[in-house]
Design goal:
The chain is α/β, with parallel strands linked by helices and about 425 residues long. It has two domains: about 15-145 and about 320-355 and about 360-380, D-Maltodextrin-Binding Protein, domain 2, CATH 3.40.190; about 155-315 and about 395-435, 3-Layer(aba) Sandwich (D-Maltodextrin-Binding Protein, domain 2), CATH 3.40.190. Helix content is about 45%, strand content about 15%. It has helices spanning about 1-15, 35-40, 50-65, 80-90, 105-110, 115-120, 130-135, 160-165, 180-195, 205-220, 235-250, 260-270, 280-290, 330-345, 350-355, 360-365, 370, 375-380, 380-385, 395-410, 415-435; strands at about 25-30, 70-75, 95-100, 140, 140-145, 145, 155-160, 170, 170-175, 200, 225, 230, 275-280, 300-305, 315, 320-325, 385. Strands 2-1-3-16-6 form a five-stranded mixed β-sheet. The chain has a four-stranded mixed β-sheet with strand order 10-13-7-14. A two-stranded antiparallel ribbon has the order 4-5.
Length: about 425
C-alpha cells in the first residue's frame, strides 16, 4: 500500500511530463521535529541537539545522493506502535530508528532483516563497533542493525549550587560514595541552598525511575533477570534499592511531581543540584553553561552514576540503531539506497556523537576529536563499564513501564515497598512467561 500510494503522485507528475526517476528511500525516526529551525541546513556541524543534528545529517545525505529521494517519517517517541501497525499492513519503512532493548522483540517474530551482508557491501564490519554497540545489535550471532550510538543515564550537576553547598573541590563535584554519604550530602545541600539535591522525573514518564532502580540493583552485583522467564526484582537487592529511593524522596532530597519537561526546566532554572537524565542532554546543558543569563553559567558538570553500592562497577546502557524491517516487495534499488544511507551514518558517527551520546565506532571513541568535545573525558569510563540488558529478555519496553510505575508507587508512598516489589515481579513475569 505504501508503494502504491507513493506511486500515485509520481504517476500524476509523469503525466505532466516531469517524472521523478529517483529511488525512493523511506526512513522512520524519532528524536523530534525541528524543520522550522534546521530544515534548510545540510551541514551537521552547524546543528545542535538530537533533532537538529539528525535533520542536518539526512539533509546532507540527500544533497550528496541526488538520485535518492528520502521520504522522512518523524514519529512520536519511541514509535513502535506505528511500526507494528505498518508491519501488520505490509507497508513498513526501509529503515527505522530502534533502541537496542527493542530489537529482540522484533527479531523473535522475524520482522527484521539480517544486515551482515548489507553492511559488508559498504565496508562496515561489526569488529569496528564498540563492545556495547555490537552487543546492542547482535542476537544469536546475527547483526540486525547499524548502531549509531550507546547512551546511558547520567548525573548532570549544577556546579554553582554545589559550590554554594560546599560540595565542590578544585572545580569538580564531590559525589557520594555510599547511601550514608548521599544522605549527608543531600542534607548539607538542602541546608545551605534551600533546594533539593536531586531533580528526577517522578510523574508520567516511568522510564526514568526504572533506570535509576536498575542502576542501584546492578551495582549490588545481581542480575535484573534470573532467566528469560523470571525477573529478579523481588529480592534483597531490589528491596535495598527501592527503600533507598523511597527514603530520599520522602526526606525531601528529591524534587517532586515533575514530568520530563518539568524536570528539565527545573534544572535549567537552577532549582536543584543534580538532574538525572541521559547522554542526549549533555549538549543542551553545556550550551546553557555558556549563557551568562543561565543559572548554569560556567557551572555545569556531568558524571556517571556514583557508585553507592560497591559490589560491581557497572553502568546501564542502551543504544539507538538503524534497522531494516522485512519487506518482500523492497526492490534491489531501494535496498541499495538503504545501504548507502547506512554507509553515510557510519562515516559520520562523530557528528551524531556531538549530541552527547557515545559513539558506536571504536575509531571515534579512541580518536582525539571526540575526547576534545566538552565533558567527554568525565563520562568516558562508561565506554568500559557500560552493560545493556541481556538479549534473552523480551518485551523490555512494557517491562520498563511496569517497573517504573511500581517504583514510583513505592517512593511516593502509594504502596509499601514489599508490595510494590511483589507486584513488579508478578507483572513482569506475566509478560515474560506469555511471550
Amino acid at each position: 500500500m505504501r508503494r502504491m500510494l507513493a506511486l500515485l503522485p509520481l504517476a500524476l507528475v509523469s503525466a505532466c511530463g516531469n517524472p521523478d526517476a529517483r529511488t525512493e528511500l523511506v526512513i522512520q525516526r524519532f528524536f523530534g521535529a525541528c524543520q522550522a529551525e534546521y530544515g534548510a541546513i545540510a551541514d551537521p556541524g552547524k546543528a545542535q541537539g538530537e533533532c537538529g543534528i539528525i535533520t542536518a545529517m539526512i539533509n546532507e545525505f540527500e544533497a550528496g545522493n541526488p538520485d535518492i529521494k528520502v521520504v522522512e517519517n518523524t514519529v512520536f517517541w519511541p514509535g513502535y506502535d506505528q511500526l507494528t501497525a505498518q508491519l501488520a499492513a505490509n507497508g513498513p519503512p526501509d529503515l527505522v530508528t530502534m533502541h537496542s532493548s527493542a530489537i529482540p522483540d522484533y527479531e523473535a517474530r522475524r520482522l527484521l532483516e539480517q544486515l551482515d551482508e548489507d553492511l559488508a557491501a559498504v565496508g562496515i564490519s561489526p569488529e569496528q563497533f564498540t563492545a556495547a554497540a555490537r552487543a546492542g545489535v547482535t542476537v544469536d550471532g546475527k547483526v540486525l542493525g547499524l548502531p549509531i550510538d550507546v547512551w546511558a543515564p547520567l548525573w548532570h550537576v549544577n556546579m554553582n549550587l554545589f559550590r554554594e553547598a560546599g560540595l565542590a573541590v578544585d572545580g569538580k563535584p564531590v559525589l557520594p560514595a555510599s547511601p550514608a554519604e548521599f544522605r549527608a550530602h543531600a542534607a548539607q545541600f538542602r541546608q545551605r541552598t534551600g533546594k533539593p539535591y536531586l531533580i528526577q522525573i517522578t510523574n508520567k514518564d516511568f522510564a526514568a525511575p526504572t533506570r535509576i532502580f536498575y542502576a542501584w540493583m546492578l551495582q549490588q552485583g545481581v542480575p535484573l533477570f534470573r532467566d528469560a522467564r523470571h525477573a529478579n526484582f523481588d529480592s534483597p537487592e531490589g528491596r535495598r534499592a527501592l527503600e533507598f529511593m523511597k527514603a530520599l524522596y520522602q526526606r525531601g532530597d528529591s524534587a517532586r511531581n515533575l514530568d520530563y519537561a518539568g524536570a528539565v526546566s527545573a534544572f535549567l532554572k537552577g532549582e536543584g543540584g543534580v538532574m538525572v537524565d541521559g547522554t542526549w542532554m549533555v549538549g543542551q546543558f553545556d550550551a546553557a553553561s555558556g549563557n551568562e543569563r543561565s543559572p548554569l553559567f560556567r557551572g555545569y558538570a556531568v558524571r556517571p552514576f556514583p557508585f553507592l553500592f560497591h559490589a560491581r562497577r557497572v553502568a546501564l546502557v542502551d543504544g539507538h540503531n538503524w534497522v531494516m524491517p522485512r519487506n518482500a516487495r523492497r526492490t534491489r534499488a531501494e535496498r541499495a539506497a538503504a545501504r548507502r544511507f547506512l554507509q553515510y551514518f557510519a562515516a559520520n558517527d562523530f557528528q551524531w556523537a556531538r549530541t552527547g551520546h557515545f559513539p558506536a565506532f571504536r575509531a571515534v571513541i579512541d580518536g582525539a576529536q571526540w575526547r576534545q568535545l566538552p565533558h567527554r573525558g568525565d563520562i568516558a569510563a562508561i565506554t568500559q563499564i557500560g552493560e545493556p540488558l541481556p538479549k534473552f529478555v523480551r518485551r523490555q519496553s512494557p517491562i520498563e513501564f511496569i517497573v517504573g510505575e511500581e517504583v514510583a508507587a513505592a517512593y511516593t508512598g502509594a504502596k509499601p515497598v514489599d508490595r510494590a516489589l511483589a507486584d513488579m515481579q508478578r507483572r513482569a513475569n506475566g509478560i515474560l512467561q506469555s511471550y
